[in-house]
Write a structure and sequence with these properties.
There is one protein chain. The chain has a domain at 2-66 and 99-109: 2-Layer Sandwich (hypothetical protein PF0899 fold). 23% of the residues lie in helices and 29% in strands. It is built from two helices and six strands; from the N terminus they run αβαβββββ. The strands form two sheets. A three-stranded mixed sheet has the order 2-1-6. β3 (67-70) and β4 (76-78) form a beta hairpin. The longest helix is centred in the first third of the chain and has 17 residues, at 2-18. The chain starts with a helix and ends in a 16-residue tail after the last strand. This is Hydrogenase maturation factor HypA. Keywords: Metal-binding, Nickel, Zinc.
Length: 125
């Protein structure tokens, strides 16, 4: 299950960027062509986050559909599996435009409260 290794990398990156703050949620984009099963990633996230700044964080996964462009006939089309033939002209001169993404889009972390103003140094009118 490669989802565990991928999810561990996500947790490590998130914790590194959290800079010591607790992580509340992480949003990840997963392309439908990148062979990552979102439900498996959700399961692995809880295990990988245990004992880290991301423990208890919510993982939100946005699935990105596959799409491609045929350079021969200029057709843009949906791509459900990585079969790179144009459905219109059967051409193989096809460029994948989306669906291979695997990226952290955002994360929500706690913020420290502002330090109270020191009474002795606060200017008085």
């Amino acid at each position: 299950m490669h989802e565990m290794a991928i999810t561990q990398s996500v947790v490590e990156a998130v914790c590194e960027h959290a800079d010591g703050r607790a992580v509340h949620s992480v949003t990840v984009e997963v392309g439908q062509l990148c062979a990552v099963v979102p439900d498996a990633m959700r399961f692995c996230f809880e295990l990988a986050a245990e004992g880290t700044l991301a423990q208890g964080a919510r993982l939100e996964i946005t699935e990105v559909p596959g799409s491609a462009h045929c350079r021969a006939c200029e057709l843009d089309f949906a791509l459900a599996v990585p079969i790179l033939l144009c459905p219109h002209c059967d051409g193989a001169d096809v460029t994948v435009r989306s669906g291979r993404e695997l990226r952290i889009r955002s994360m929500e972390v706690s913020t420290e409260c502002a330090q109270p103003a020191d009474v002795e140094t606060t200017a008085r009118p």
